[in-house]
Amino acid sequence: MRRDFGLALFALLYGSIIAFSHWLLILRLVLMPQIPSPLAEILVVCVVALGTCLFIRPFSERWFGERFARMLAWPTFVWMGMAFFLLISLLVSDVLLSLLGAAAAASGATAMAPVLSPRAVAAIVTASALSLSMWGLILALRPPRITRLAVDIAGWPHALDGFRIVQLSDMHIGPLLDRRFARTIVARVNLLRADLIAVTGDLVDGRVERLSAEVEPLRGLESRHGTFFVTGNHDYFSRVDPWLAKVSELGWRVLRNERVTIGAGGDAFDLAGVDDRMARRFGADSGDLERALEGRDPEVPVVLLAHNPNEFDDAAAQGVDLQLSGHTHGGQMWPFGYFVRLATPYVAGLFRRGRSLLYVSRGTGFWGPPMRLFHPAEITEITVRAAAE
């Protein structure tokens, strides 16, 4: 009963947002510009139909089956991105026109015609959104770039100086990204000849029964010490337990609030991993950094894998040397990164707190709209060096 009520509340809120935003698009881009018939009617029907797709997409597999859900995926998510750019372009145009109007009024103009007609505004907004959408599509669908950085860690074993960790994060294999994408990732990563591969969550969007074959190429990832995985929030949305079994079958080591030793003797470091915070909403233990670090030798450096970068505050307080995270996608589509900053100060890149370092990946895939703007996808090669003492 409680779950049904929560689902109904989500559907009501989600539907209200979609209805309002699409009503605004119809008003500003069709009705106010007085688009002539029958083009106006065609545009209204298209916007309503695409808005309906946005509403039913989260429930489509349950209501209509997997095949229908797959057919719905591309038009729905492309429209999601374009609608976002349309709304942003409308906002920017309104602000600019208001500023121009205020400037004209301040100059003493007593009567002035509108700077642009509603039809001209609609044309400029639509052209801008289409251009941004196409640009975003091109950037998102090309192979992720290789980002290289070097970090210095005090106490890092000199025998492991130059140790290379390749980080993959937020691949989101699912409705839009499939086994072809997975094969591309494997080919690019294996060329790097990494010492260790770290996958920091959000591997999939969908159940293992549907996507098992799509992730299968990832079995081919190669590195000296293997591939290690921690859960992300979308892995829980996708029924995490079967996925953990699948990941283990791929030959990856899952770190669930635990750590392992990489290397031997004095030439070693601890690699720890924590479950995502979303776990508690699914009746499981959420990230437990204390348990992961319990009993460790403080003289041994530790690298932490944690999907959510907000773990960094606790990690720094507990002496973690380097944390690798994802989750934010770097904002994925400008200007969405500014909204991400409301949830975390760690959006993308390298951060330092005391002697502790955090690297937040922009993600290797994408979620939702198949678009990226100013925040390209990445495969990260992190070279760890011993800091000069």
Q: Could you characterize what this model shows?
A:
The chain is α/β, with parallel strands linked by helices and 389 residues long. The protein has 2 domains: 2-139, no CATH class; 146-386, Metallo-dependent phosphatases (Purple Acid Phosphatase, chain A, domain 2, 4-Layer Sandwich). It has helices at residues 2-31, 39-56, 60-64, 66-106, 118-141, 179-190, 208-215, 233-237, 240-249, 289-293, 312-317, 336-340; strands at residues 145-153, 163-168, 196-200, 227-230, 253-254, 258-264, 267-273, 302-305, 322-325, 349-353, 356-360, 378-386. The strands form 2 sheets. Strands 1-12-2-3-4-5 form a 6-stranded mixed β-sheet, covered by helices on one side. Strands 6-7-8-9-11-10 form a 6-stranded mixed β-sheet. A hairpin with a 2-residue loop joins strand 6 and strand 7. Helix 1 (2-31) runs antiparallel to helix 2, helix 1 crosses helix 4 (66-106) and helix 2 crosses helix 4. The radius of gyration is 24 Å and the shape is globular. The mean pLDDT is 91.
List its salient traits:
389 residues, alpha/beta, Purple Acid Phosphatase, chain A, domain 2, six-stranded mixed β-sheet, 17% strand
Summarize the structure.
The chain is an alpha/beta fold and 389 residues long. Helix content is 43%, strand content 17%.
Q: Major β-sheet, in short?
A: 6 strands, mixed
pLDDT < 50 runs, ≥5 residues: none
- Described by the principal axes of the CA atoms, the overall outline is globular
Number of DSSP-assigned strands: 12
Order of helices and strands: HHHHHEEHEHEHHEEEHEHEHEEE
Corresponding CATH architecture of the largest domain: 4-Layer Sandwich
Arithmetic mean of pLDDT:
91
CATH topology of the largest domain: Purple Acid Phosphatase, chain A, domain 2
> Helix count, per DSSP?
12
- From the helix content, strand content and strand pairing, which structural class follows? alpha/beta
Assigned CATH superfamily of the largest domain? Metallo-dependent phosphatases
Helical content class: 40-55%
Strand order of the largest sheet: 1-12-2-3-4-5
Rounded to an integer, what's the Rg over CA atoms?
24 Å
Query: What is the count of structural domains?
Result: 2
Q: Class of the largest domain, according to the CATH hierarchy?
A: Alpha Beta
